Amino acid sequence: MHMPITPQQSNHLKSIAILMMLCLHLFNREEHGLFQPWIYLGAKPLSYYISLFSDACVPIFAFVSGYGLYFKFKTKSAKYHADNKLRIKKLYINYWIILILFAVILGWVIGKDGYPGSFQKFILNASGIEPSYNGAWWFFTTYVLFVLTSSFWFRLLTRYNPFLYIGVLLLIYMMAFYIRVYLPGISGIPLINYFQNQMALYFCILFQFMLGAFALEFRWHEKITQKLKGIQYPNALGLLGIIGLIVLHGLVPNFVIAPFTGLAFIFTFLQLKVPVLGIKVLDFFTPHATNIWLIHMFFYMIYFSEFIYSFQYPIVIYLVLVVLCLGSSYIVNFINQKINQWV
């Protein structure tokens, strides 16, 4: 099977998604008393609108994951489950390193209440069953579930009418989104609430995950590229398109549209002629993207919130957080490499 979105482009999109996640978490909040924006558009700062658009981070990451896994499902079906087990094993090793360094050791050194907390809390986090140490870890559990169950959804794509299938997935997404946002924890029993939350998260992301599989199966990228072939000034038009998406999300601030703004961003980005420097920067972030996702909340919220926001200005705050995450990622990758060599 032809794979028009290259592994390098997929990695670039993942890196962009993680960098968008930092923007979303840092600035999608009330700025007064926390940071000082330079530019306001009406009552809200520009940083708010950019952070609002950045909620496309999970849809982008889910799309790329679905695209890549579906490619492997189609081309390496005999090894698909074995490769997925290895993928999960490597992800857990990386996750455990960060958990021990940040939730256990650093939490103990700082004396943060609940870090590492009880043995039960540690086990629930280490297993990924209830990753309560870090709010951004919710996607870890969901991603593992997708890797384990992806073949079921991929087989449906090869058997049923694609228009009906994507319509059902969209309906499931809308229902799951409503339950997740507007009906959380409807039971008085914690275990039932837990399963409700996990199912809502899973079925919220399923539509976005499967959009990647649909894109590969029906060659969306190739068709869009062919339609736009020969167009002049693709970068200028692409930039205008992205600005338009930011404006659109500002007018419709509900997160329900994130899968659609994310999808539009993906195919806009893929039409850009990225300069060599831009490619080098995105390549640089590739081996650090997962670590940045798993680490960043420890810095900006859990342990060092006052320090991070003490830099006042959004661009400085953002760069400081990126640098701290990158420095930590080098340590994590070094330990990970040594463990993998030993294993």
Could you describe the 3D structure shown?
The chain is globular. By secondary structure, the protein is mainly alpha-helical. A hairpin with a 2-residue loop joins strand 1 and strand 2. The longest helix is centred in the first third of the chain and has 31 residues. Helix 1 packs across helix 2 and helix 1 runs antiparallel to helix 3.
Which tags fit this structure?
single chain; 343 residues; mainly alpha; two-stranded antiparallel sheet; 15 helices; 75% helix
The coarse overall form would be globular
User: How far apart lie the N and C ends?
Assistant: 33 Å
Radius of gyration: 20 Å
Following the backbone from N to C, one meets helices and strands in this order, namely HEEHHHHHHHHHHHHHH
User: Count of DSSP helices?
Assistant: 15
* Low-confidence residue ranges: none
Specify the helix fraction band. over 70%
Largest sheet: 2 strands, antiparallel
The total beta strand count reads: 2
Outline of the structure:
This protein has 15 helices and two strands.
Q: Helix and strand layout, with pairings?
A:
Elements lengths: L6 H21 L12 E2 L2 E2 H8 L3 H19 L4 H31 L8 H9 L10 H22 L2 H21 L7 H28 L2 H8 L6 H18 L6 H12 L6 H10 L3 H15 L1 H5 L4 H29 L1
Antiparallel strand pairs: 1-2
Helix pairs in contact: 1-2, 1-3, 1-12, 1-13, 1-15, 2-10, 3-6, 3-8, 3-11, 4-13, 4-15, 6-8, 7-8, 10-11, 13-15
